[in-house]
Specification:
The structure holds two protein chains of two kinds. Chain A has no helices and seven strands. By secondary structure, chain A is mostly beta strands. Chain A has one domain: Immunoglobulins (Immunoglobulin-like), CATH 2.60.40.10. Chain A has a four-stranded antiparallel sheet, with no helix packed on it. Chain A has a three-stranded antiparallel sheet with strand order 1-2-5, with no helix packed on it. Chain A is elongated and about 55 Å long. In chain B, helix 1 packs antiparallel against helix 2 and helix 2 packs antiparallel against helix 3. The longest helix of chain B has 21 residues. Chain B has two domains: 42 residues; 101 residues, SoxY domain (Immunoglobulin-like, Sandwich). Chain B starts with a helix and ends in a 7-residue tail after the last strand. Classes of the chains: A mainly beta, B alpha+beta. At the A-B interface, strand 3, strand 4 and strand 5 of A face helix 2, strand 4, strand 6 and strand 7 of B. Strand 4 of chain A pairs antiparallel with strand 6 of chain B, so a sheet runs across the interface.
Chain lengths: 103, 155
């Protein structure tokens, strides 16, 4: 099971600022190991964000996103107490979903 | 024979039909959009990526803003933000010209999301970075050069 995400969401003037830090290797498939063999690609491909269960943002990622990806975005009309859900899927089909409350 | 070439060819041919159906409103954009982005991630050059995204020749716009340092010390972690001031922005994509695959990330904005996203990307070397924005059915873009002192794709 992958490590949990860290999600911070703060509401200000009717806009929620959401910051997410995911724990993932994000291997590009370009690097070689000590024996000269290519390390296969392994990275997050899809991230979806929802506000109170309603999808607001879908991110499509390639291997060029940094290791332990950071994502920041803004949601209009979100207020304190609202639920932010984030889930990702990687190239191995692994998934992780976490939830946070807007403060 | 290169299997990925075969797959991307198939994906590309299937995509045309999907795009037409989505444009007509016959299909929800979800799975088609995912397939479109999957084929766009296979492309290498900026021009091919734009083609795979169906963007054609986007107009340069001052309302698309790339927020990043001019010089990144570590190419493995380059913070980049893209903001659009265009009304009805529905998609934001970030392309790095000199990376092995130009497309770094793309964001589909649904109702409620502000056209303002920040991320951290890898850059192999100093390069021009393009932000592509789809607003109200049209494509716009902005360009910025980011210098990298230490590449992020080595090993």
């Amino acid at each position: 099971m992958p490590d949990p995400m860290r999600i911070r969401a703060t509401a200000k003037d009717g806009v929620a600022d959401v910051r997410v830090l995911m724990a993932h290797e994000m291997e590009t498939g370009q690097r070689k190991d000590a024996a000269g063999k290519i390390i296969p690609a392994w990275h997050i491909t899809e991230v979806t964000a929802s506000l109170n269960g309603k999808p607001v943002l879908a991110a499509h990622w390639g291997p060029a996103i940094s290791k332990n990806p950071y994502l920041q975005f803004k949601i209009k009309g979100a207020k304190a107490g609202d639920k932010i859900g984030i889930s990702w899927t990687d190239t191995k089909g692994e998934k992780r979903t976490d939830e946070a409350t807007v403060s | 024979m290169n299997p990925s070439r075969r797959q991307s060819l198939q994906a590309a041919s299937g995509f045309g039909v999907y795009a037409a159906l989505v444009a007509l409103g016959l299909l929800p954009a979800g799975p088609a959009a995912a397939q479109q982005f999957a084929s766009a991630f296979q492309t290498k050059s900026i021009a091919d990526t734009l083609k795979a995204l169906g963007a054609g020749a986007p107009a340069e716009s001052k309302d698309v803003i790339i927020n990043s340092p001019d010089i990144a010390e570590n190419g493995a972690v380059v913070p980049v933000g893209v903001r659009s001031n265009l009304p009805r922005t529905e998609m934001i994509a970030l392309l790095v010209e000199k990376n092995p695959n130009a497309l770094a990330g793309a964001y589909t904005l649904l109702e409620g999301a502000e056209p303002d996203v920040n991320m951290r990307i890898k850059m192999g070397q100093s390069s021009d970075v393009y932000a592509l924005v789809k607003a109200d059915g049209k494509y716009y873009m902005a360009k910025k050069e980011i210098k990298v002192t230490l590449g992020g794709c080595g090993g």
